From TrEMBL:
Protein name listed in UniProt: Regulatory protein zeste
Oligomeric form and interacting partners: Self-associates forming complexes of several hundred monomers.
Species, as recorded: Timema tahoe
Main function: Involved in transvection phenomena (= synapsis-dependent gene expression), where the synaptic pairing of chromosomes carrying genes with which zeste interacts influences the expression of these genes. Zeste binds to DNA and stimulates transcription from a nearby promoter.
Keywords, sorted A to Z: Coiled coil, Transcription, Transcription regulation
Length: 354
């Protein structure tokens, strides 16, 4: 209901050709003009006819939905009812000081349609304040269909006539302080209200049913969309959760690999430090060994030289004649031994450096 009220506040736009086509179509389809059937089969048939009519009207102007065209047709009938009430009022006034403008050709067709289908209702059922303007694409209709709504007096007359029983006696009194019109106009309005009160109530019930069915359809579509959205959200959440689990697994694998690499690097550093320590110890032991060998060799050579020198002195004392030649021989031997000693000492130092 609230959706229909919000839509009715908007300005309905249509073209002259669309109004003409709408009226002509309703002239040939009285069941669609009345929309008074309530069985499901007839409702489906009416819906199909409205859809076909909407496609035809779409070719002659702006596109509208079936619900919007129903509102246009309903408002057009209300306008014609108001014009009929205005004409009857002015024509039945005493003296006829002011005559009502005659009905246009389009209004006469609408009157014939609503009279044929017995669908004339009180003007109060129309939606007041709804603007019905033509589209800017085409010029306005030559005939004036924007006539004013019924006056307060007419509305009160129609409401009183609707509440009356067809077999009841005189009509109920009007509001206090209001001066009633002539007896002739009052009797005419009462008879009009009594004649069509039954069809008006049926029309109201049918409109309520239509609005209820439309509301149920809208809420059903909203529920379907809501369920579809919930399914999509659930699927997206599932995909996101699986992606997060996969990412967490990858992060754990990377962390384990990093931990293993760090442990291996620390172990490698420990082994390298141990190797360096062992190499330094080996170098120290080798150096000590070389120094010991050098000391022993030096001591040996010194002891040997002393022994040779003593032997040389003894020999010289026994044989003075051969002193010079023996001295030269001993000295050459000493020099050779000294040179050999230094060569071997240099070789050992080179090996220790390596």
């Amino acid at each position: 209901m609230s959706i229909n009220k919000e839509e009715s506040k908007k300005t309905r736009r249509y073209t002259t050709a669309q109004i003409v086509q709408l009226v002509d179509y309703m002239s040939n389809h009285s069941e669609l003009a009345s929309s008074r059937f309530s069985c499901p089969i007839s409702n489906d048939k009416l819906d199909r006819q409205w859809e076909a009519l909407a496609k035809i009207l779409e070719k002659h102007g702006p596109k509208k939905t079936v619900a919007q065209w129903k509102i246009v047709w309903r408002d057009l009938k209300c306008k014609v009812r108001g014009r009929l009430a205005e004409v009857n009022k002015l024509n039945s006034a005493p003296g006829k000081e002011k005559s009502a403008p005659p009905l246009t050709e389009l209004e006469l067709k609408v009157r014939a349609i609503i009279t044929t289908v017995n669908d004339i209702g009180e003007p109060s059922t129309c939606e007041r304040g709804l603007k019905m303007t033509l589209s800017e694409e085409e010029p306005p209709i030559d005939m004036d269909i924007s006539f004013p709504l019924p006056t307060k007096f007419e509305l009160i007359q129609n409401e009183v006539g609707e509440n009356l029983d067809p077999q009841a006696g005189p009509s109920l009194p009007l509001e206090q302080g209001y001066n009633p019109p002539s007896l002739q106009a009052k009797n005419m309005s009462e008879s009009l209200g009594n004649s069509f009160s039954s069809s008006s109530r049926k029309s109201k019930k049918h409109k309520v049913v239509e609005e209820w069915e439309s509301t149920v359809k809208i809420f059903t579509e909203i529920q379907k969309d809501h369920k579809s959205s919930n399914k999509e959200i659930a699927n997206a959440i599932t995909r996101l959760a699986s992606a997060q689990e996969e990412l967490l697994g990858q992060q754990m694998s990377v962390a384990f690999a990093l931990e293993t690499a760090v442990a291996a690097h620390l172990e490698s550093n420990k082994l390298q430090a141990e190797a360096n320590r062992l190499q330094a110890e080996s170098n120290r032991v080798q150096q000590a060994h070389n120094n010991k060998i050098t000391e022993l060799l030096t001591e040996f050579l010194l002891d040997r030289q002393v022994a040779i020198f003593i032997l040389f002195i003894k020999l010289c004392m026994k044989s003075r004649l051969a002193f010079s030649s023996r001295v030269r021989s001993v000295m050459s031997n000493l020099l050779g031994m000294h040179r050999l000693f230094h060569e071997r000492l240099a070789m050992r130092e080179d090996r220790s450096d390596e």
